[in-house]
Amino acid sequence: MLHTDSIQTDCLIIGGGISGLTCCQELAKYGFKSVIIDKEPFLGGHAVHLTCKATQECQNCGACLVVESIRNTDASPDVSCFLSSRLEHIRFNDEIYESVIFQEPTRINPELCDGCGECLQKCPVPGAIQTPQGNIRPYIRTELCLHGQKLSCSACAEICSRSAIDLADSGREIRVKSAALVVAGGFEPFDPSLKPRFGYRRVPGVLTALELEKLLRRDQLKLLGVEPAGPSIAFIQCVGSRDPKIGRNYCSQVCCAYAIRLACVLKFKTPSLRVTMFYMDIQNFERGLEHFVEHASEKITFVRAIPAEIRKGKDGRPEVLYHGPGDERLWQSFDLVALSVGISPPERIPALDFLERTLDGFWGNSGMDGITDAPGIFVTGAAQGPKSIKDSIQQAVRTAGRTASYLMKPDRGARS
Questions:
Q1: Does residue 82 contact residue 110 with C-beta atoms inside 8 Å?
Q2: What's the CA gap between 25 and 247, in Å, rounded?
Q3: Which CATH code is given to the segment(s) 191-342?
Q4: 318-323 and 329-333 beta bridge pairing
Q5: Model confidence pLDDT, tens digit, residues 254-263
Q6: What tens digit of pLDDT does each residue of 2-55 get?
Q7: CATH for 3-104+171-187+345-408?
Q8: Do residues 199 and 310 touch, judged by C-beta distance below 8 A?
Q9: d(CA 228, CA 378)
Q10: 17, 77, 278, 390: which is deepest, by most CB within 10 A?
């Protein structure tokens, strides 16, 4: 029989990325309690995988803000977090939202785990237990765990001195009553296999910039010594953005600054690295970006062209075909090609199908800064449209203010 818990709180926040984390912390300042749910087994969303872009000085990438926000949320007595969870059903009854949440088996009890790390050291399968940056407690990757594959292994449970690991956990149902609801479900990275000409998962050495981030953060990127003349990498911009043929006729806003920072930190770590960036045009959604681009051009070769094809060369490396200034066909080989994938709308949550969507598929009304037609439901961060970490934080602060105002209204059934 499925175990069921019942919780009453002021606000249910769907999404544990930087927007959801910021919103719950701001609501706590107003004296309101929040419950956060997230489909992932960790807090921080996509941004938790980003590496610091500092070279000789801070590059204002915002990665450290995510880590700080995770730790502040974890330490807050006004916030409860339920990870590996999804919203199954919701109804509005007597000015209260009654939500039904299903939590997948977590196997590590967050109330008992103190993050000592003994289970990570004892686990016989590298990577089966992980602790993303900023998160205190580890999680078990079922697809790698021997027990999850129906094999005999209980090493982590046996070593845990706090009995925090229950490999027989079968999940539970959580019923949450809240006066308000904030949708902070973030975004989905564009799948570059939908544009086969770029060779993703077909040509060795082609990966997404997000995958490159993860390798860099884990010190798993081995670029040195690949080629006698020095390693080389190409960045290709606007993969899944500004392309009406695939229904993405909008700019993802963050890719230019993001890729340039990533290229600069790679160059800083590996001075012999040759960096080329293929772009349509540089979109300036960030104050001072033009000066940053001017400085970066001393280290990066900018080519104003979007490649037509990437193929496997005779030497096994990726070859990039693009058109030069005179429309001539040019082929150039690189050791790695990083695709700057765009920001796609968040995945569908059937229980929220009653909420309006923008023309581009994001939640909410794009012209009303997170306000929806449903009383007490607000949208924030990249769930409403492409945003940087800092822009997501700023909007989440405003969203928390609107949510607090709604919660304090005596007639809060009316639209705020």
A1: no
A2: 35
A3: 3.50.50.60
A4: antiparallel
A5: 998 899 999 9
A6: 678 899 999 999 999 999 999 999 999 999 999 999 999 999 999 998 988 888
A7: 3.50.50.60
A8: yes
A9: 55
A10: 17
Q: How many residues does the chain have?
A: 416
Give per-residue pLDDT as tens, 70-125. 999 999 999 999 999 999 999 999 899 999 999 999 899 888 999 999 999 999 99
Do the Cβ atoms of 318 and 206 come closer than 8 Å?
yes
Type of residue at 8: Q
Residue spans of the domains in the chain: they are: 3-104+171-187+345-408, 191-342
